[in-house]
Amino acid sequence: MTGGSGAGALAQRIDKLFKTVKPKGREFTYEEVAQGCEAIGGSFSKTYVWQLRTGLRENPTKRHLEALAAFFGVPVGYFFDDEAAARIDEQIELAIALRDASVRDIALRTMSMDEATRRSIAQIVREVGNIRGNLRGEQREDGTSG
């Protein structure tokens, strides 16, 4: 892993994929992942998938990583390149947000607006988020607390 992500980073990334890649509206089971990866290439068991997700096994073969990446629809670099993982995580978060009909509606409506209006709307959304965070005592986007 690059960038000092160290032990447990692989497990964290696999866990994040389980929690965020939900084409069936729920997390995949270990059995589904094992069967999917086995079909792509390699011998997998649901126990092995569980061990990788929980960090009990941290050194899978290249073939296993390729199968996991293909199953979850991410490049294999996601598992060992911090910059790639950050970019992919952002894309996954965007895809998750766009599953929400209200978010899609707002995004589609702003597409027909000029750039200045979109910037103004983005600022309004940030401010509303900051106000809501302040009410809960969370940190603002600018780093100050509320």
UniProtKB/TrEMBL annotation:
GO molecular function, one term: DNA binding
Organism per entry: Actinoplanes regularis
Superkingdom as given in the UniProt entry: Bacteria
SUPFAM superfamilies in the cross-refs: lambda repressor-like DNA-binding domains
Gene3D superfamilies (UniProt xref): lambda repressor-like DNA-binding domains
Domain HTH cro/C1-type span(s) in chain numbering: 45-79
Protein name per UniProt: HTH cro/C1-type domain-containing protein
PROSITE patterns, A to Z: HTH_CROC1
InterPro entries named in the record: Cro/C1-type_HTH (IPR001387), Lambda_DNA-bd_dom_sf (IPR010982)
